[in-house]
Amino acid sequence: MIASLVGDPARANMLTALMNGRALTASELAQEAGITPQTASSHLSKLEAGGLIEPEKQGRHRYYRLTDDDVAGVLEGLAGLAARTGHMRVRTGPKDPALRRARICYDHLAGDLGVQMLDTLRAKNLVKQRKQEIELTADGERFLAKHLQISPDMLTHPRRPVCKACLDWSERRHHLAGTLGAAMMQRFAELKWAARDATPGSRVVNFTRTGEKQFAALFGDGRD
Amino acid sequence: MIASLVGDPARANMLTALMNGRALTASELAQEAGITPQTASSHLSKLEAGGLIEPEKQGRHRYYRLTDDDVAGVLEGLAGLAARTGHMRVRTGPKDPALRRARICYDHLAGDLGVQMLDTLRAKNLVKQRKQEIELTADGERFLAKHLQISPDMLTHPRRPVCKACLDWSERRHHLAGTLGAAMMQRFAELKWAARDATPGSRVVNFTRTGEKQFAALFGDGRD
DNA sequence: GCAATGCTTCGGCTACCATCGAAGCATGAA
DNA sequence: TTCATGCTTCGATGGTAGCCGAAGCATTGC
Description:
2 copies of one chain form a homodimer. Chain A contains 10 helices and 11 strands. By secondary structure, chain A is an alpha+beta fold. Chain A binds a DNA duplex through helix 4.
């Protein structure tokens, strides 16, 4: 039974961690769920047998991701039922407001601001998006060079795409991943616009006062 | 956690039994799940606490129904995931082919033929459907009078609607309930087109050779 | 009133399964 | 090769939860 797979707390935590669309290693998932690797291994093989997640070997790591959007959809549905009965799970998404606003997703910007940024890039025709695929336009290249001193040759990588849409768990929409997403986040840090929170293990990204303004000037949507 | 509620086999069987939209008593659900009433009582209170089902007292019976369509939707989603991985539950719907084809849902026709009938009524503009609501058109009234000798005044009832969409569990689509659904089923029986299976407790509806033809002439979709 | 039916609560039993320690493979690095 | 890292398999343990028998309420019918 599928539901019993999702029903176990440890497995639910793993699946929740995977809801952001990114693949995570077995150890990372073990840590997310707060269990030992050997226990996690058992859970992961069950989830895989149930068709909820798919593995991808890479070196001595084993990355897991949700099988597809259908799985994510059902998980969201379950979370929805849980939410309305007040049976909200502890980990059903970032509860910390700061975390919802801006956080690190692997190495790029996620949260409200991350989603906002991709929205604006798309609206200004700096990128073109078709489903998960994102392409940088000529205008986009000029924009990056002018405002962020990012040139296309900085973005080439043997295996990683320049642009990629990454599902934002708190916003339920896409933000920008890939080498460009990483480069932009790095640039924000270099420009002292933003910095990762000092708390060890925290994924919160704090914007400075001026950083917030500059960011809004480039990517703001007029909301605030 | 909601999923763990659905995960238990006994509870899943109960929920499955409720998927046809009808309310069932605690004892009936116990029988469906193959457990004793006292065990069922425990499960039912958990499902109720989780907001998946709602009770309705009536005399010394206690009827339970799914809370709403959202719950049914999530359950279908889970069943969908289960189906595609071959992890199909034993009881994920009627396994008996005859039961899938035509059966009694309370007092009206369900299964493949039931769904087919409503489809055709809709296609011929004999009824209009908007979500759960179904309305008989003027054409529909003429059709019923002409072919089945059913007049509108036979269908009025203080509390029961004339037409109602009822989710068909085996087909995952709607069939026709309400007083009209009941009247049509009754007419089929009177015309010796079909009859409930003689086996005690069976919900199978057997069509006669001529009944099948007549039914197909009125409601066939050309599939066979 | 008494009996019968339907459902719930209580207590104890049992079975399942999540968990972790220890050991075993695989991959990559030196 | 040898070592380290990441993950899996094995075995044993323990806690949880499903399960039923017995008893207790509630409602209906006589």
